[in-house]
From TrEMBL:
Keyword vocabulary terms for this entry: Signal
Leader sequence segment: 1-24
Protein name (record): Outer membrane protein beta-barrel domain-containing protein
Superkingdom field: Bacteria
Amino acid sequence: MYRRILVVAAALLSLYCMGSPTLAYSGPAAEHPSVGVGFHDTAAPLGVRWWLASQKVGIDLGLGFHSDDAASSGFPDEKLTGWAVDAGVPIVVKSWPRVHVLFRPGLLYQSQQVENPATPAVFDTENAKDLFITGEIEGEGFILENFSVSASVGLAYESFNPADVGSPPFPGNETFFTTLGNNFTEVGFHLYFLH
């Protein structure tokens, strides 16, 4: 019995040693220009990713804005606006010739105007605000030399401050923990072209 265990252990060790040089070689890390345009989150699609000196740590910044008609509320000349700011620090955990695995702590802040129904004769708005503090694992794959697509999964802490509108009392801040996942309809991208 003892001899069989030694033979099996020796065979497994031999297979591991023969296969490991091939498995261990992953080629050079993905290299590209340091600055690219694109986005990480669809709420803030006007973005930039800037890799610092060694391309191991970067900075993500994104902005978003939208404006909707308030015509459904009886105010055809008025708009309800919203905006978002996304910031993150992508950190390379592992890299292969065409793929980065990143850990990305980040913040997403959103503000959205909502109409105040307590003043139906006058157009009045209040702001609903949302803050996400995130920690994500992101896969960034280079499908062309300087063009990447990315998707991520992770966790988020959310602090939601609803607009103070209507007759019930203002509920105050609400906080949540949630999971994140970007599917194929929300895949981010970056086009790197500045050194």
